[in-house]
Amino acid sequence: MESKFPGYRRIDMETWPRREHYRYYRGTLKCGYSLTAQLDVTEAVAFARTHGRRFYGCFLYAAARTVNEMEEMKLMTAPDGALGIWDTVHLNFTVFHEDDKTFSDLWTEYHPEFEVFYREFQRVVDTYGDVHGVKGRPGQPPNFFCASCVPWLDYTGFATSSVGEPALFPIVTFGKYTEAEGTYTLPVTVTISHAAADGYHTSLFFHKLQENLREFGGGGPAPV
Predict the structure, then answer these.
(1) Is the pTM of this model over 0.70?
(2) Do residues 83 and 90 lie in contact, with contact meaning Cβ atoms separated by under 8 Å?
(3) Gyration radius of the chain over CA positions
(4) What residues act catalytically?
(5) Region 170-182: what's the mean pLDDT?
């Protein structure tokens, strides 16, 4: 269906296969869930070290690419209240401040080509990385998803809680990567409303993310 918001496709609730699930988990049982998986990041770690890139930026690209490959991860309510799917969602990510041990949210535009994405990511960090406060960069667009890192811990489970309805957009959290016998693994968590995605969709997200992380082998991700 047409929408007055550019890049936003309204969902026809009369024909959408998930309409009953959406209404149930948005009305009767307002719940979300967090799912954690260990992913192989050996190729991404090697790429970052060889090419002088931050692993953080490499992983964020893979996560943003995966989110943008799945309609279930781009489901949102538009400012006019209509449910729909964005063509593209951008990245909201966190930076840590060593001086006072707080963090700030920054955002950067998603681009399917890694080099373009990484340059913009680095520009945003260089420009706004030292700005303190919850929101370090103003002007965050409505079409976004969240990513954050807990680099001090190789965890096995992670959960968040919220008051009211869980967010439709995914929150991707990852921890400290560790090495065993030449293989680097990383805990990754996806938190999302059950109205937006079921276990099938989140599992598919992890499989796609693993594929995108492996593309850092052999010179880096190919243009989409």
Answers:
(1) yes
(2) no
(3) 18
(4) 194
(5) 97
Is 209 a domain residue? Answer: yes
- Token duo for residue 115: 């080099």
- Name the β-bridge partners of 23: none
Angle between helices 42-51 and 55-68 (to 10 degrees): 130
Q: What is the mean pLDDT of the chain?
A: 93
| Amino acid making up residue 31 | C
* Residue numbers of the domain that contains 145: 8-214
Residue type (1 letter), 135: K
Structure token pair of residue 165: 């309805």
Strands 183-193 and 32-40: antiparallel
Q: Cα(166)–Cα(188) distance, rounded to whole angstroms? A: 19
**Other CB atoms within 10 Å distance of the CB of residue 123:** 11
Predicted local distance difference test score (pLDDT) of residue 220: 73
As a whole number of angstroms, the distance between CA 210 and CA 212 comes to 5
Residue 1: its pLDDT value, please? 45
Dump pLDDT digits (tens) for 127-140.
999 999 999 999 99
The CATH number of the domain where 205 resides is what?
3.30.559.10
Sign of CA dihedral 178, 183, 184, 187: negative
